[in-house]
From TrEMBL:
Pfam families: Aminotran_1_2. GO terms for molecular function: L-tyrosine-2-oxoglutarate transaminase activity; pyridoxal phosphate binding. It comes from Macleaya cordata. Gene3D superfamilies: Aspartate Aminotransferase, domain 1, Type I PLP-dependent aspartate aminotransferase-like (Major domain). PANTHER family: TYROSINE AMINOTRANSFERASE (PTHR45744). Keywords: Aminotransferase, Pyridoxal phosphate, Transferase. The keyword Disulfide bond does not apply. This is Aminotransferase. Residues 47-410 form the Aminotransferase class I/classII large domain.
Length: 465
C-alpha cells in the first residue's frame, strides 16, 4: 500500500512469526483460545481450573497486612520517584532477610534484585546467561515461559523429563545425557508447576551435585515456595549454594495471593562468589539498567509485607489448598478416562493423564479441553502447552464448593464421550430401549449405527450401567 508519495509504507513486523508462536505456546494464549469455545447460552458459571490466580475467590483473599503496608507506603510519600534499577534498598534488604531464614548463610541486599514479577526474573536470568549456541535444560512438563522467551534471545532449549512414578523427580540420567559444553544452566521448579510436586532434600542435593559435575548453574524457580501440604517440606535450592551456584527466583504473587502486583526478585544464592567472579552479577545489573522496574510504591510496601505477615494467614491458605487437593484427588479416582499418577503435595496444581483410548471423538488434550469448555463451562489447561501431550493441568486453587461442581461436570463430560462407562465386564451393554428391547449388543455398533451425536449414554442404558 502506497503512502501517497509513490512509496510503500515501511510498516511490517518481521518478528510476527515469533510472536505468533510465543502466543500459541503460552498459558495465556491457550486460555484465550479455550475461552472462545465457551457456550454463551450456558447459564452456569464458568469454572476456571486452568489459571494460576486464585485471588478472585474470597477464601484466598490476601492478608490485611498487605493493605496496611501499601497504605503506609503511599502516605509516606517516599516512593513517588523512579526506583534504582536493582530495586529500592528497603525492599532488597527485606527480601534478603526473608530468603536467609532457611539458608546456612546470610544474604545481603547486594544479592537481591527486584523484578516485575517472577516472569521478568526469568527473562533477566536467561538473557544474561545466553550466548550464541548456548542451550538450557528445562523440565518437561514445566512452566512454558522459559521456552517461550528463549527464541527471542537465540537460546536453545533441551527438555529433561520429570518422572511421575517417582513423585515427579528429575530424571538425572537424562540431564547428564543432554548436557554438553554449551549448556549454561538447569531449571528446577519447586514446588512444582505444573505437577504439584515437592522435591526432597536428598533429591535436590543430587540435582546440585549433578549440576556441579556438569559445570552448570541452577536456576531455582521458587515462586510457589513454602506452599506445601504433603509429607515433604519445602527446601530452598539455595541451601546447596556451596555445591553449585544458584539463581533463586521468587515473588509475592503466590504465597501472598498478589499476582497482579507484579513484584518478584532474583537472588544470588552463591556463597562461593562464582557468579560475581564470572561477571554474571554484573550482567544482571547491566540488564536491569535499561529494563523496566516494578512500581516504586509496591516496592515500598514489601518490607512490612514480608516482616509482618502472621503464620495464621499462611496456615489458612495451606488448609484451604490441602482440602481442595484432597477433593480433586478423590474425585479424579472416579473418572476412568483420567489417571492421576501422584497426589499433589504443593503449589496449586496437579497433572493428570488422559486415557484417550477410552474416549470417542476426542483427538488430543486440546480437543478435550475445547469440548469440555463448550459442553460444561469448565476450563482446564492442555498439557501440550506444558510439554506433555494428552495430559492436563488442573488448578485446585478455587473455593471447595466450586471445585466439587467442576469435578462433577468433568465426570459428566467424560461419561458422555466414553463408551466404556456403559459396558459390563464382557464389553457389551444391555439396552432396554426400542428397537433393542432385551438385547445385548456390541456398544460401538450401537453408537455408530443409531446415535450420530451421543451425549448421555446413561439415558439409554439398562441395569448393566
Amino acid at each position: 500500500m502506497e503512502n501517497g508519495g509513490g512509496k510503500k509504507w515501511g510498516l511490517t513486523s518481521r518478528a510476527n512469526n515469533k510472536f505468533k508462536m510465543a502466543s500459541e505456546t503460552s498459558i495465556r494464549g491457550a486460555l484465550e483460545i479455550l475461552k472462545g469455545s465457551l457456550d454463551a447460552a450456558d447459564e452456569r458459571p464458568t469454572i476456571p481450573l486452568g489459571h494460576g490466580d486464585p485471588s478472585v475467590f474470597p477464601c484466598f483473599r490476601t492478608t490485611h497486612i498487605v493493605e496496611e503496608a501499601l497504605n503506609d507506603a503511599v502516605r509516606s510519600a517516599n516512593f513517588n520517584s523512579y526506583s534504582p534499577s536493582a530495586g529500592v534498598l528497603p525492599a532488597r534488604r527485606s527480601v534478603a532477610e526473608y530468603l536467609s531464614r532457611d539458608l546456612p548463610y546470610k544474604l545481603s541486599s547486594d544479592d537481591v534484585f527486584v523484578t516485575s514479577g517472577c516472569r521478568q526474573a526469568i527473562e533477566v536470568a536467561l538473557s544474561v546467561l545466553a550466548y550464541p549456541g548456548a542451550n538450557i535444560l528445562i523440565p518437561r512438563p514445566g512452566y512454558p515461559h522459559y521456552e517461550v522467551y528463549a527464541p527471542f534471545i537465540n537460546l536453545k532449549v533441551r527438555h529433561f523429563d520429570l518422572l511421575p512414578d517417582k513423585g515427579w523427580e528429575v530424571d538425572l540420567d537424562a540431564v547428564e545425557a543432554l548436557a554438553d559444553e554449551n549448556t549454561i544452566a538447569i531449571v528446577i521448579i519447586n514446588p512444582g508447576n505444573p505437577c504439584g510436586s515437592v522435591l526432597t532434600y536428598q533429591h535436590l542435593k543430587k540435582v546440585a551435585e549433578t549440576a556441579r559435575r556438569l559445570g552448570i548453574l541452577v536456576i531455582a524457580d521458587e515462586v510457589y515456595g513454602y506452599i506445601t501440604f504433603g509429607s515433604n517440606a519445602f527446601v530452598p535450592m539455595g541451601v546447596f549454594g556451596s555445591i553449585v551456584p544458584v539463581l533463586t527466583l521468587g515473588s509475592i504473587s503466590k504465597r501472598w495471593i498478589l499476582p497482579g502486583w507484579r513484584l518478584g526478585w532474583l537472588a544470588i544464592t552463591d556463597p562461593n562468589g562464582l557468579l560475581k567472579e564470572t561477571e554474571i552479577v554484573d550482567g544482571i545489573k547491566q540488564f536491569l539498567s535499561f529494563s523496566s522496574n516494578p512500581s516504586s510504591v509496591i516496592q515500598g510496601a514489601v518490607p512490612q509485607i514480608l516482616e509482618n505477615t502472621k503464620e495464621d494467614f499462611f496456615n489458612k491458605i495451606i488448609s484451604v489448598l490441602r482440602q481442595s487437593a484432597d477433593i480433586c484427588y478423590d474425585e479424579l479416582k472416579e473418572i476412568a478416562c483420567i489417571t492421576c499418577p501422584h497426589k499433589p503435595e504443593g503449589s496449586m496444581f496437579v497433572m493428570v493423564k488422559l486415557n484417550e483410548s477410552l474416549m470417542e471423538d476426542i483427538h488430543d488434550d486440546m480437543d478435550f479441553c475445547l469440548k469440555l469448555a463448550k459442553e460444561e463451562s469448565v476450563i482446564l489447561l492442555p498439557g501440550t502447552v506444558l510439554g506433555l501431550k494428552n495430559w492436563l493441568r488442573i488448578t485446585f486453587a478455587i473455593d471447595p464448593s466450586s471445585l466439587k461442581d467442576a469435578m462433577e461436570r468433568i465426570k459428566s463430560f467424560c461419561q458422555s464421550v466414553r463408551c466404556a462407562v456403559c459396558t459390563n465386564l464382557r464389553g457389551h451393554i444391555s439396552i432396554s430401549w426400542p428397537p433393542f428391547q432385551s438385547q445385548v449388543l456390541n456398544e460401538s455398533f450401537v453408537r455408530r449405527r443409531y446415535f450420530a451425536k451421543p451425549r448421555r449414554w446413561q439415558d439409554f442404558c439398562g441395569a448393566h450401567m
